[in-house]
Design brief:
The complex is a heterodimer. Chain A is mainly β. Chain A has helices at 2-18, 23-35, 131-135, and strands at 40-50, 56-66, 74-81, 89-93, 101-106, 111-115, 142-152, 155-164, 170-178, 184-191, 196-208, 211-221, 227-237. In chain A, strand 12 and strand 13 (227-237) form a beta hairpin. Residues 10-18 of chain A have low confidence and may be disordered. Helix content of chain B is 8%, strand content 48%. Chain B has three helices and 24 strands. In chain B, a hairpin with a 4-residue loop joins strand 2 (76-89) and strand 3 (94-105). The longest helix of chain B has 21 residues, at 15-35. The two termini of chain B are 35 Å apart. Classes of the chains: A mainly beta, B mainly beta. Chains A and B meet through strand 6 of A and helix 3, strand 1, strand 16 and strand 17 of B.
Chain lengths: 256, 447
C-alpha cells in the first residue's frame, strides 16, 4: 500500500515537472546565467523603509559577494546606517543544496554570533524583504513551471511559477521574466494561507560587463501597506576579493 | 584629590610603564609588517582604504529606590560620556584604529577623563592577520556568564555582572590553517597586566559591604603572585575549527586571572587588598545551529600557579566551570513583524556545593540557570523588550533585568529598565548586592 502511495506521489511530481517540458526551469537557468559570472562584487545599498503612513527611514549597507563553484557563494553585508548599528556585519556561506551558514558580528560587544538560517521568512533589517528574498535564490531550491505568457507594461513576458523546496514563508512565487533579455521584472509572493502577500518590482536593469544587475528593487507588502525600496550604487565587479575576505575576522574590518 | 587622580588613572599604567609598553609595541609594529608579504591583489588592497569617523554622546542615569546599606552609597548615579571611533585603512591591508572615550561621572565613582578602548595598528592579508597595540578581544559565545572570555580586564566600579571591558596592551596574530588542520590558529602576547578598578565606597555595591573589613581598592596596593608583578609575561593560544555547522575553539591562557581575590593587608589588620593569582587556564567554546536551534557552550579548566589557599587555610584545587545552553527564535508568533527569542543557559563549576570559605575567593555563578526572553519589533525603530534572570537553584537568589530599547530619529537610541536583586537567604553569595536594585535610563546620540 505504502509503495503504491509513494509511486503515485512520484508519478504526480514527474507529471507536474514535465507539464511545461522543463521550460520554466530552462528560462530560470537563462535568467540565472544573465546575473552571474561577475566573479566578485562590491556594492552599496540604500534601503528606504516606508510605512503605511508614508513615513520613511533610510538604511545603508555595503555588500561584498564572491562567486564560487556550484553556487557555494560567500556574501558579507556590512551595516553603515543607522549609526547605532554601524559596523555590524552578516556573513553568509550559501549552500545551494542545504542550509546556509550565517554569522552576525556585533561591534559593540566585539562578538561573532552564529545565527540560524533555517527561518528564511524573517525580516531582513526590519524591511519588507525576507532573508529568502535576499539570499535564498539558488536555482536548485525551487521547482519551476511555466504557466503562461503576459505583457507587463507593453513588455512580453514569460509567466513562471516557482515553488520553494525548503521551509519558506511562501507557498509559491509568480514571476514575470521578459522574453527579450530574460530578466525578472515582477514577482508576486503567495503566503501559506494562499493570499497575495508581497509584490517585488525589479527595475533599472543595467549591464555590468557581461552581467545584468537590477539597481532598484521594490518590495510592497499588500497586507500591511509597508514598502521597501533598495537602490544599488557604486557597484564594482572583479575587485579582487578572495575567500579570506569572507571570514569571521574580516567582518570586523571597517569598509570604506 | 591625589587619590582621585590615582583612581582616574587606575586602569592605566604610570608614565614610566607606558614608555616601556610603547617601546615594546613599537618594536612589534616594526617587526610584524616585515615578517609577512603584502596583499597579492592591488585592486583588493585598495578596496579597504579610506578614513572613517563616528562618535556618540551618552548620558546614563540610575536611581536606587531602597535605602543603601552604607551611608556613603548614594541613591542616584549619573554619568556623561563622549566617544569617537577613528579607522584608517591603508594600502596592503594595513589598518589603524583609535577609540578614545571620555567619561564624566557625576558621583565621581568612575571618573575616567580619557580611556582608550582601541589604539592599534594591524594588517589583514590573505591567510594572515596581526594587530599590535591596545585592544579589546572577545572569546565569548554564550549570552550570560562567560567562562572563556579571559583576556581583557574589566571595570567593576558600577557593575559586577556585566562590567565594561578595558583594552589590554597586546600583540595578536592569526594564521589561517589548511582545512585538515582546522580553520585558524591565534596567538596573543600580553606584556603588561592592568589591575582592574574595583568598587569604591560610593559605589552602590562592594565585596566588603556588611563585613567588618575595609577594602583598599587602590590599584597601586594590589599584590601579585609573580615576582615580576605587572610585567609578568602573559600569553594565550586559540585553535579554531568548524566541524559541520558548528564553530569550535580550544584555548589556553597563561597569566593573571583578571578578577582578584581579597587578601588581608600584612600591615593593616581588618584591611583587605586585591591579590592577583597566576593561572593556567584551558578550555573550549562551541556555537552552532541545529535547524532553528542555536546551541552554545563554554567550558574551562583553571589551575593555580603556586600555593593558593582559602580563608580557612585549606588548599584550593584546580577546578572546571561551564556555561552551556540554547537559543530558539519564534518567528512572527503574534504579529508578522515581531519575533520572540528565548534563551536558557546553565552555569556551574566542579566545586558547586562546597562551602565558599573553602574556595580561593568569590565565584559568582556555581549553580545557576539563566533564562532570557527578547521580543523584537522589526519596525523602523528596531525596538526590543528584553528580560533575563540569573537564578541560583541552591541558594534561591535571583538577579534579573528588564529593559526596553528603541531608536528615535535615526541618530538617537534610548534604553530604560530595571535591575533587580532578590535574595533567597541572609547568607547567600550575593548578599553584598542587597538593596542595589535600580531603575536605569540611558540615552545615546550617534553621528
Amino acid at each position: 500500500m505504502l509503495t503504491r502511495l509513494l509511486t503515485g506521489i512520484l508519478l504526480l511530481c514527474a507529471a507536474a515537472q514535465a507539464a511545461d517540458g522543463g521550460e520554466g526551469r530552462a528560462i530560470h537557468v537563462k535568467y540565472d546565467s544573465c546575473r552571474h559570472g561577475f566573479g566578485d562584487e562590491t556594492v552599496t545599498v540604500n534601503m528606504f523603509l516606508i510605512n503605511a503612513n508614508g513615513d520613511t527611514t533610510t538604511r545603508r549597507v555595503k555588500t561584498l559577494i564572491l562567486e564560487r563553484k556550484e553556487s557555494f557563494d560567500y556574501s558579507l553585508i556590512q551595516f553603515m546606517d543607522p549609526p547605532d548599528v554601524r559596523g555590524a556585519g552578516l556573513l553568509t556561506y550559501q549552500n545551494p543544496r542545504g542550509e546556509d551558514q550565517q554569522w552576525l558580528y556585533l561591534p559593540e560587544l566585539r562578538r561573532v554570533k552564529v545565527i540560524s538560517s533555517q527561518n528564511k521568512s524573517g525580516s531582513f533589517m526590519g524591511s519588507e524583504f525576507a532573508y529568502e528574498d535576499i539570499t535564498g535564490n539558488s536555482l536548485d531550491k525551487f521547482e519551476y513551471r511555466k504557466i503562461g505568457e503576459a505583457d507587463l507594461e507593453g513588455m512580453p513576458c514569460h509567466l513562471i511559477e516557482k515553488k520553494p523546496l525548503f521551509t519558506s514563508g511562501y507557498v509559491r512565487v509568480k514571476e514575470w521574466i521578459d522574453k527579450e533579455k530574460c530578466l525578472l521584472r515582477r514577482a508576486e509572493m503567495i503566503d501559506r494561507k494562499g493570499s497575495l502577500l508581497k509584490v517585488e518590482l525589479d527595475e533599472d536593469w543595467r549591464l555590468y560587463g557581461n552581467t545584468w544587475k537590477s539597481d532598484r528593487l521594490t518590495m510592497i507588502n499588500l497586507q500591511t501597506g509597508k514598502k521597501t525600496v533598495l537602490v544599488f550604487s557604486d557597484r564594482k565587479h572583479r575587485v579582487g576579493l578572495k575567500e579570506g575576505d569572507f571570514t569571521q575576522p574580516s567582518m570586523q574590518r571597517v569598509r570604506f | 584629590m591625589g587619590a582621585l587622580l590615582r583612581w582616574a588613572r587606575a586602569p592605566w599604567p604610570g608614565p614610566a610603564c607606558l614608555c616601556l609598553i610603547r617601546l615594546r609595541m613599537i618594536r612589534l609594529c616594526m617587526i610584524f609588517p616585515c615578517l609577512f608579504p603584502f596583499a597579492a591583489s592591488p585592486a583588493a588592497a585598495m578596496e579597504g582604504t579610506g578614513f572613517d569617523f563616528r562618535g556618540s554622546l551618552e548620558s546614563r542615569f540610575r536611581v536606587f529606590p531602597q535605602d543603601a546599606l552604607d551611608p556613603d552609597q548614594g541613591s542616584g548615579q549619573h554619568a556623561y560620556g563622549i566617544e569617537a571611533e577613528l579607522n584608517l585603512g591603508l594600502p596592503h591591508g594595513l589598518e589603524a584604529r583609535a577609540h578614545p572615550r571620555l567619561r564624566l561621572d557625576g558621583n565621581r565613582i568612575r571618573q575616567n577623563p580619557l580611556v582608550m578602548d582601541d589604539f592599534y595598528l594591524g594588517q589583514f592579508i590573505e591567510g594572515l592577520q596581526w594587530r599590535a597595540g591596545y585592544q579589546v578581544f572577545s572569546w565569548k559565545v554564550v549570552e550570560s556568564y562567560s567562562q572563556a572570555d579571559v583576556l581583557n580586564q574589566t571595570d567593576r566600579r558600577l557593575d559586577l555582572l556585566d562590567p565594561d571591558k578595558l583594552a589590554e596592551p597586546a600583540a595578536f596574530l592569526r594564521l589561517d590553517l589548511p582545512a585538515w588542520l582546522g580553520e585558524a590558529l591565534e596567538a596573543y602576547s600580553l606584556p603588561y597586566f592592568t589591575p582592574g578598578p574595583l568598587p569604591r565606597s560610593e559605589s552602590r555595591y562592594s565585596p566588603v559591604t556588611g563585613t567588618p573589613f575595609t577594602l583598599v581598592s587602590d590599584a597601586d596596593s594590589a599584590t601579585y603572585d609573580s615576582p615580576s608583578g605587572r610585567w609578568e609575561p602573559q600569553w594565550a593560544l586559540r585553535h579554531l575549527w568548524r566541524p559541520g555547522s558548528f564553530d569550535v575553539a580550544f584555548f589556553w591562557f597563561h597569566g593573571y586571572r583578571r578578577f582578584p581575590v581579597f587578601a588581608p593587608h600584612p600591615a593593616a589588620p581588618g584591611t583587605l587588598v586585591p591579590r592577583y593569582l597566576r593561572v593556567e587556564q584551558g578550555g573550549m567554546t562551541f556555537q552552532g545551529t541545529l535547524g532553528n536551534w542555536i546551541l552554545k557552550g563554554e567550558g574551562s579548566w583553571q589551575g593555580f600557579t603556586g600555593d593558593v589557599r582559602g580563608p580557612t587555610g585549606s588548599p584550593v584545587d584546580p577546578y572546571g566551570s561551564f556555561t552551556t545552553g540554547f537559543e530558539y527564535t519564534f518567528y512572527a508568533p503574534i504579529a508578522a513583524d515581531q519575533d520572540v527569542v528565548t534563551l536558557v543557559e546553565w552555569i556551574g563549576d566542579t566545586d558547586s556545593g562546597k562551602d565558599p570559605i573553602d574556595l580561593e575567593g568569590f565565584r559568582p555563578f556555581q549553580n545557576d540557570l539563566f533564562m532570557g526572553l527578547r521580543y523584537v519589533f522589526n519596525g523602523l525603530s528596531d525596538a526590543t523588550a528584553t528580560g533575563g534572570v540569573f537564578w541560583d537553584y541552591r541558594e534561591g537568589d535571583a538577579l534579573y533585568k528588564l529593559e526596553l530599547r528603541r531608536r528615535f530619529f535615526t541618530h538617537l537610541s534610548c534604553s530604560a529598565g530595571y535591575n533587580g536583586v532578590m535574595l533567597g537567604s541572609d547568607t547567600g553569595r550575593f548578599q553584598f548586592l542587597d538593596r542595589s536594585s535600580n531603575l536605569f535610563a540611558d540615552l545615546k546620540a550617534y553621528w
